[in-house]
Amino acid sequence: MAKLHHISAFNTILYILTLTNLCQSQSCPCGYSVGNSVFTEAMETDFTQVQSLNSIIGDWQVQDWRSNASADANIPYNRVTQYANVIAGNSQGLQMMVRTASDDSIGCSEIRTARNDIKFGSFRINMKTTPINGTCAAFFWYQDDAHEIDVEILSRELTTGLDGTPGPVANLVIHSPESQAAGFDASKTNSFMKDTMDWNPTKDFHEYRVDWLADGVQFYTDNSKVKQMTNNVPENPGRVFINHWSNGSPGWSGGPPKEDATMWVRYTRLYFNSSDPKLVQSAEKRCSAARSKGSKNLVCDIGGGSNNGGGNNGGGNTSGGNSNNGGGTGSNGGNSSSVFVPSSPVLPTNSSGSSSSWADLPDGSDSDKKGAASPQLGGNVGALLALSFLCIVSVHFI
């Protein structure tokens, strides 16, 4: 029998390709493109190389907090998120634990990005969830309880979803003022979907991806688009979270688990825009400088993915944690490198219908209503990519 850390041929290829940088940050000075959108910040973490949580502290914050039981909300156990339940140093990746109940409490785990300026982006996680009944594995972007984009996998839905959907199920959610009005029950809104996965998420590692664009949110699994939502799309910046939890609620997580449950995180790849005007200006200058020098690979295409129809609601090679705002690739941790940073992911056009040149923009361009500059990239994405060389992917075997 294959060892636990062995993965299928397809996922081996996917893992190798995505584990490495799609191209070095120096080769993508103007950002990373998904369709007609450009994201200009990159934070990539390979948790298989993280030996200590201290090495990722610049990018990720391990959480420690408590949410009390509530008879009124039918939550029978305290949810106790603890630093000790996030464990680094394993070749499979980061372990995120949910403990068996102790008295009236359940130990849980959570990490979040140190940055809270994440505004639009493409967020990817490679993870394996627990087969032990009674937990929720979640990967999500969050501003507040009424502005949140979730991928949640309940271990109790491996066979059948709570609503009868054939399992295993991934819950795809946008929390909004509408769901807030419904008692934070997004299933009562049109921003809640269930996707029946073609695999058991507890048997192998798979990539789950969220593309948050100005005109909608797209959900992918293993590089195939499965669902799309166009209602209640958030517009303001926030953070990215990963957590594994249970509070015994019969309406969601179920549990508590009968034994300690482990969720494994192999890597995260976050490509996004910043709402920080200083980063906008810095990235604008970097992109302009690269163009004036005739640099190649100005924008790297990270889109990929196939469209399986999905649903529409109508409407560098990194190895563990220091941030790097100079466009270089970090070592001993996931790196965060700033490149060109528009406040909107879709490249805007001027009144003549063509995009303005970066060289024509003064330092400190006009700000939008939220205070972030809205620079425009010279030419359209297709023309720019046509002038840029393809990104070179270096494949490193573990």
From TrEMBL:
PROSITE patterns: GH16_2 (PS51762)
Keyword Manganese: no
Pfam families xref list: Glyco_hydro_16
Matching CDD domains: Glyco_hydrolase_16
Compositional bias (Gly residues): 307-333
Keyword Nucleotide-binding: no
SUPFAM superfamilies attached to this UniProt entry: Concanavalin A-like lectins/glucanases
Annotated Polar residues bias: 346-358
Name assigned to this protein: Concanavalin A-like lectin/glucanase
Species whose genome carries this gene: Microthyrium microscopicum
Lineage: Eukaryota, Fungi, Dikarya, Ascomycota, Pezizomycotina
